[in-house]
Each structure stands twice: as C-alpha cells, then as structure tokens.
Sequence to fold (1027 residues):
Amino acid sequence: MLTLDHIYKWVNNGGRRVFLLNDLNLKVEQGEFLSIMGPSGSGKSTLLNVIAMLDEFDEGEYYFDGEAIHELKPKKRTAIFNENIGFIFQAYHLLDDLTVYENIETPLLYKKVNRSERQSRVADMLDRFNIVGKKDLFPHQLSGGQQQLVGIARALIINPKLILADEPTGNLNSKQSEEIMELFAELNKEGTTIIQATHSESNAAYGTRTIHLLDGSIVKN
Amino acid sequence: MIRNYFKIAWRSLIKEKTFAGINIVGLSVAFASAVLLGMYSIYELSYDNFHQSDRIYQSYSTYEVPSGRQILVSQPIPFAEALKQEVPGIEQIARYNAGSEVIISEGKQFRFSVAFTDPHFFKIFDFPVSRGDSEALGKPNEIALTQETAQTIFGKEEAVGKTISMQLDGEEKPFLVTSVLKNIPQNSSLGFDIAADFTQQSSSAYRDLKDDWGHANHEVYIKLEPGVSVANFEKASRAFSNSHNQGFIEQMKKEGVSPDENGQFIQERLLPLKDIHLAKEKDGMLMADRLFPNLLLGIAILIIFIASVNFINMSIARNFQRIREIGMRKTLGAGKGQLFFQFWGESLLVFLFSALLGLGIARLLLKEFQSLFRTSASLDMIITPQGVLFLLLIVLLVSLIAGGYPAFSASRIETISALKGRLSRDGNNQLRDTLIVFQFAIAILLISGTVVLYSQLEYLQNKDLGFNKQEVISIPMNGKKEDARVIQQLRNELGKTPGIESITAANGVLGLGLDGGRSSSAMSFQFEGRTVETNLLMVEYDYPETIGLELVAGRSFDRSRPADSLAVIINENMAQQLNQEKIIGTPLQMDDTGAEKFTVIGVVKDYNFQDLDQAIEPISLFLKPHWNMRYIYVKVRNANSAAILKTIEKAWKKIEPEAEFQGSYLNENIDRILKREKNMITMITSGSIVAITLSCMGLFAMSLIVAAQRKKEIGIRKVVGAGIGTVTMLLTRDFVKLVLVAFVIATPVAWYFSSEWLQNYPYRVSLSLWMFLAAGLIALIIAVFTISFKTIHAAVQNPVKSLKTE
Fold:
C-alpha cells in the first residue's frame, strides 16, 4: 500500500544537521496493523506525519497506492490525504465548541457530502461505537476514553484506507487503553490498514508487525 | 455548510464573551457615531438637490477696486432683464429678494418671510404647487403661500381665494392667495413662507430704484439653456458688463486699478445652485467650501477604522488560542477557502449585529443630536433602498478587511505547526503594534484638534471686541409701529427705571439676534479723487455711548446741535483711509448729486461689527433718528441680568403687544455667530471622545491577551524576585512606547491642519507646543490607566498559581 524509500528529514541546528529521519525504508501492505515503537524523540511522530503527508521530507521517495507522493503538488497531496487517511491523536483534538455528533460530521461537511447522507453515516458511526446517547454532549462532558472513541469515529467517518494513530492511548488508563486496542484489532480484521505509534509493549502486541525506531532509523523489524 | 459556519461562529462568540462584548460594543458605538456624522454630512451636502435641473445658477459679480477684488451677490433692479436681452444662453432669469414682512389677515397680525420674485422663479426651481393655480404669481397682486403658512393663517380653512394684507410703505396692501405651495424642504438654501411679485415690494426697494444701475439690493437666479457652459456664458457677458458700467470702469482706470486676467473690471459669474449652501469666498471667487462636511465624513471613517483595528487585533490574538482548532480542522480536510469563510463568517456576524445595534443607537440619539447641532438631518435620508444597500456594502467591505486578514492568516497556518501550537509571533506583533500606533495617532490628532478649536473659540469669546457686550441688550424691532415712535415710547417707559442707563437704536445688529436677521450696507464714494469704501450704519442719539465705543478723537452726536443731522462718526480704519492730518471736520461728499455734505465729528476705536472671521473694515455712523431702524439697544447697569431683561420685556409688551420680544445680550449674539465653531468643537470633541474610548477598549483587550500570554514569564520573574512595581512597569512599558510613537506621528499632522484652519481667522490664537503636549498627555494617561487594571492584577497574582497551570 505504501513504500518509503531512503527517506531523510533533517533540521539545521547551529550549522549542524540533526536528522529526524535517517535513511528510513518502510513498506506497509494493505491489511497490516503496524506498531511503531521507540523512545521519545526517536522519530515516531515525524514518521507518522510524513506518512500522513502533513510534513515534508528532504530526501527519498514515497509511494502511496502507487502514486509518487514526493513528486506531487501540495494541493494534490492534501487531496490524497483527505481521501484516504484518518488520523487519531494522543490528545484527541476534538473541537471543543462542537457536540459529539458535529465533531464526527465535520469531515463530511468539508467533503461537501449532502445532508441526508451525512445524517445516515454519522448515525451508523454513533451506533457502531455505542455512543448514540452522547451525541449532543460536548467533549468536555466526556471521559478520556469516550473522547478518544469520538476521535476514532471521526477518523473512520470518511471510510479511510489507512488509519494513523499517534499514541492513541497515551492519555488513557489501562482499562480504557485495552478497549481502544481491541477496537483497533477489530477494525483491522475488517480490513482497515492501521499504523500506530506507541510506547507500550502490550499495545504494540495487538499489531501484526512491530518496528523499532531509534534516532530516525529502523533498528529492529 | 453556511448554516454550520454560523453555528460555529455563534458558539465561539458565546464562548469568548469578553472579546465579543468589547467588539460588539465598540463596533456598534462606532457605527452609531459614523451614521450620525455621516447623516449630518450628507444632509449638508444634499442642499438644493431636490431641484431637477443642473443648469441653475446664482448670479454674482466681481469688481476690481483699489482695495482688491470685491464680490457682490446683489444686483441692481434693471440688471436681470438687460442680461437676458443682451447675453445669449439664458433660458430663464428671476430676481429674488426675501425679507421679513408683517402680514395681516382678519385683524390678526403675523410676521413671515416673504420672497419677492418674478413668475419665472417657479420655472427655474422645483417648488411645486399643491393647491390652486399651478402657475404661481400669474398677476402682480397674486400671492402664494406654503402649506405651513396657509395653516398658520387660515387653520383648516381653504386658503386659495382669500385675501390677505401686507404692510408695505406704511399701508396695508391687499393680495389674493391663488396658490398654495408644497412645504419647502429643510435642505433648501432658499427659504420663504410667502412668495409675492417682485414689483410689489416697498417703494424704497423697488419703485425708487427701478432704473438705477447704482444700487444693488436683490439676488438673481439663472437657468442656462442646455449646452451652454459657465465659461462661455461668463465670456459672453463681458460686453454687457462693460457697456452698463462705463462710469465705474473709467474711474477705476483713472485710479490705476489693474483689471483681472481678462482685462475686465467687472465680471459676471455664476455660482452653481448646489454650491450655494456651502459657498465661501476664496481667491476672489465664490466656491463651495466642503471642509466641514468632509471633515465629519473623515472622522466617521476614522472612528470605524479604530473600531476595526480593535477587531483585527483581537482576532489575530485569538487565532493563537484557536491555533489547535485550525490545525485540527485542516487534518479533517478543511481547505484554505473553507477555513477563510468560517473565520470571516464569524466577523461578518459580529459586524452585521453591531451595524444593526449601531443603527438602533443612532436612532435613540437622533433627537439629542438634532437639537445639539441644530440640524434637521434625519435618518430618513439614509434609510432608503440605496442607502441601506450602501450601508450593507460598507459593512461587508469593512468586515472583509477587518475580518478577512485574521481569517486569511489563520487559513494559511501550517497544519503541523498549528497542531503543535507553534506560531511565530513577531510578524503579528508588528502588525498589531502598527495598528495601535495608528489608532492612538488618530485619537491624539482629534484631541489636539479639540484643544486648538477650543482655545480659538475661547479666544474669540474673550477677545475685546471694542464694545460692551455684557451690559447691552439688543431688541429686534419686529412690530407694526413706526420705529421712531417705538424708541420714543420705550425711552419714556424705561427712562427712569433704575438699572437702565441709556436706550438707542441702529439699523444693524451686532452678532446675531434672536430674530436671526442680518443686514448690512456699504457704499463707495469719491474723496480727493480716490474711491473710498465704507460700511454704513444708521444710528440714533447715544449709540456710541450705549454700546460702549471708545472715542479716540472728536465728539459724539449731540442733541443740542441741529447740524449733527449731517454729522458722521467714523472708525480708525476709515480715518486711515481718508488719511487727513486733521480728521475732525473733514467734509465728505457721499453721493453724486452733492446734495448732502457730511462732516466727520468723531473717530471711534476699531470694533468688530462684523463676523469674527473678518478683519475690521471701515465704517461710518450716521445720525438718522427717523430711518428704518431694525434694532433697539439698551445699556443696563448689571452684566447679563435676567431680571432687567424681564422689566424691558414688560415695557415692550405694553408698546408692541402683538410682537414677540426677542431681546438678548450682545454676548449671546456673539455666541450665536460662533455657532459654526461651536458645532465643530462639539462634533470633533464627541469624535475624539469616541475615538479615545474605542482605542482604550482595544488596548484593554490587548492587555488582557498580553497578560495571559506572558503569564508564565511573569510567574518566573516573580519567583526570582521581581516586585509588583517592576512587573507592572514591564507590561506597561511596551504600550507606553506605542502611544509615544503615535504622539510623534500625530503632532506634526495636527499642527499642520490646525494652522491651516486658523488661517481663516484674522484674530487667532498662536499655536503652542503645550496644546499638543496636552493632547498627547491626555491620551497617555488614559491609556496607562486603562491597561493598569490588568497589568496590576497580573502583577499581584501568586506566581505559584500561574506556573502550576503550565
């Protein structure tokens, strides 16, 4: 599904190059559930951002579904991202001013999906995550686990091919973490490709494959 | 989608109550002020625009005389007819002479403004007839009333067909009402209650002067034929001017006066109708002076600008707080356009709401505004389909500029840095600081304008005008009785009243009386082969003593000397013009016939008998007790006493029971001629108060934001030992710098405009630095006071608290 080929990303710090990603090669197949592990600063988030096309890289080639992403205009890249990828954050990043329902609906608004279809898709999603009763609540009225559920529901509403999750359980207790991980495993079984970055061995174990990052390179595959 | 935008906008407003509140209050106050000022200004500029034709002009002439160029709007009686005959291009021409006359109907006595004019007048102007003969003034004895006048005289009865009398030449002359005119719009520079035929005026105004080219006493209005340009008409009129004024031209040539650039000593000119209301003399021509209305429009725009700056600054500052939301939305697939519209939608909501609120506030304040500025400008002028559309466009435009920039900058933030909450602040702070500097520069500009205007007004009010303004009362003679009789009876009635020192009369007023009338006369005559110009005033005995003129040479009029009927008292300026070694006793041959030879018996110190924006001109006082006097003057012992005014009113009512008593002290009269200056002061003062208030509201909001942004820094500083004073200083310093920069920018501009404006006044205060320093200091103190609320609050906070939240 996606191939990263000799990816370099660096920042200049006092005349010296500091590598965030250093000659990174990665291939992810459709249907995989990949866990990326590594200590803080090893480049997990940077890698996810590069995969999500939210961040640029300085050297190397990136193919997504056969498209050469490194050759595309930013606008086209954004379009591919919006079409195919759902992103889940450690800090949930729900919009505070919107209700659960509206948060889930927002990506569809930006895609100009018509009203009746929006309604049915959001209703399906609420059903699926058992949060119908919470649809009119605002994020601050929910627990962390529930907020992350909404975050996942919002990522899934566009039927993405790929889900990127950056420490999705970092702010949750272990019971909530487990629930989220079970959900990921289930989604993966249904066919969604998932890439998660995590600190936790137990979370990584839910994946079908684990890679370890250190200083921007894969050290263990 | 749009519904969604507004929903989000509404919620974010509710969430940020303080900022939304400051913005809405600020913007609605700004819109209200702008609407009121704009309305006044549009009203002033709209004068006479209800007349359909754009080919209507007022005729005036410029004369080259020894003292320079003279402008005269008055024309001699044969002028209009001759001009139409001899100069091509005139479609219609009408003479016009308006004055106050006594009207009698069924024993009741009224005083109305009567316009004596030619029938063509109604073909030139659009003063439509509402009832009766549609061709008003068809015959000389016919008369036309406005609806209001008809109502006053006849109440509900039909006015058409009735006969009323006008007191002319001491007789009651009957007229037949044949037409009732629609009421004259407020914004008409020609205003009258009754129109009558030009030939029906008193004989001193018409019959005696019928063929006299030497006396000018009325205005002339012209409608040009289509396609005739003013320049061509003025050129074509030169032969006419030369042929009818040969004597004058010969004389000027003899005295070595140089003609104008076209070799003319007299030039007929045309002033467009729409310029009449604001016409002012400039460079020897009449021109519309739109300074004041334009100034007000300018202030209106500045005020909107200030409120918009607050909006921009607060929006940009709030973008920092919303930066994660922006990043989030971008990862959810929001395009730049969509983000832009969301943020712009929020500002549009605020602006539309504020505009509506502002309009409401303007409506509430309208009555106050109208009475404060004595204007009949009303909101009806603005609330027309075009007006509303225009307002809407303005709101849209301002919200696009003020809301668009923050929206634009928000939409362009990089997704990744937005998600991480990172944003470079320097660029935005520069914009913010620049805008604050501009805001305060405007505020300081307006405040210093107020200070200068106020000093000038103060100066004019306290200036020694050369006469006693506190202890003299002027009373317009608006009754039916003969003037000399009234004066005599008043003297009998009040002569022995304690507190009253003397009573006299003159045919001119000092300042502007309660009757609102002004008149002046001037003439020129030959003296030792030169042309001498002088203003004329007909006075009663005791005039110089009563109003307190200071004799510098000779004596005043004396009842015991019958020869004083040919005596004249002149002012210093006139004495200078005559330039005699021994001025007392100088004979003056003041008319061509040589029938009357006057003798100078006294010289009084120069006094301001005209408006205060005019230099003192020469004047000659003639003793003419039986002249048509217009004002009685009473010298009282106590300055501005209301009690004595009551006593005089009682006596007046005994003599003229029908006529209204309009006595007022001369200093009140002077204040009345300073109405324009006062209006200007009130408007600019209100403008600067609004400007400084709005600027401070913005500053207050900024201090809230800055204190929040620097919370951690303040905490750290306090932990390492900074005191409350130091921290307050730290936060205040940056803002004080901005106000100082604003002061440096605003002062030269304010100085320039103030000195330009003061050029209009021959008597003016000299500009000094303290006026501008005062303005800057006021702005600075208010600014520091405003931000001190938040800075001190931030400084006294327990540092542990502020560090814990991080």
Summary: The mean pLDDT of chain A is 89. The longest strand of chain A covers residues 16-28.
